Input
Amino acid sequence: MRERKFAVIGGDMRQVKLADLLALDGHSVSVFASDQVRSTQASLAPSLGDCVQGADCIVLPLPLSKGCDPINTPLSDTTFTTSEVFSLLTPSQIICGGRIPEPVYEIASVHKLTLLDYFSREELVVANAAVTVEGAIGVAMEATSTVLLDRAVLILGFGRIGKLLALRLRAFGARVTVAARSFADLAWISAYGYTGIHMDALDENLSACSVLFNTVPHLLLDARRLALLDPAALCIDLASKPGGIDFSAAASLGISTIWALGLPGKVAPESSAAIIRDTIYNILSEQETVL
Output
């Protein structure tokens, strides 16, 4: 990829590592609103305007915001809105962000700007799922202080994370059962050699599991179902909000739970940054083809 100028704004350690990786690739990189952890390779811009001036690509955080505004800046006390950023940009500049709320696209449209969501890209989501799974297994082993060999593990859901989790857990020697609602998923679960159960049969299979991983962002484990678990079982929720576990009920029942949100950014920020970088390169390459 030809040398470009990037402006990396806000975000967590993934954005800091991203700025370093882009700079190491030979690009000119300015960062803003991550001043609590300094990038070792990129230059810290004194202002938002200085950061974005002349940049070919502006990289906004993942998630872009917790609502619509302000922009997510956990590593800085500086706060600003998407409108403030967009007012400083020109239509020739490309903006990439993660988990972009729909109203932000409308703001970008008013300014005639190109706004693209790197988290909507399949290559990023799959790679991110792989990092999530590795982190989740680490969380489980740390929380139980035991290996996964021959442990009865139940996975709720067979999406990207569920598929990769089942694969990795079986490699560790765990006895893997996967609950799914789709009959097509159940066919694949069986074909891969896992034990498959329909979600409607979940109740009678809960007591046997030692570790449970939920990947479904809907309440599946309410107080009634949690009471069916072995009190020594560990439940790890990997689903985004609202999650799939009634954590209050679990606490009342003495069931150990962990809501492992944002694992890629927490356990492997540099690996996550590399995934974001590669995805942004793909986006920019496609934009060049279109133009």
Summary: Residues 139 and 145 are 10 Å apart (CA to CA). The mean pLDDT is 95. The chain has two domains: 5-120+268-290, 125-260. The radius of gyration is 21 Å.
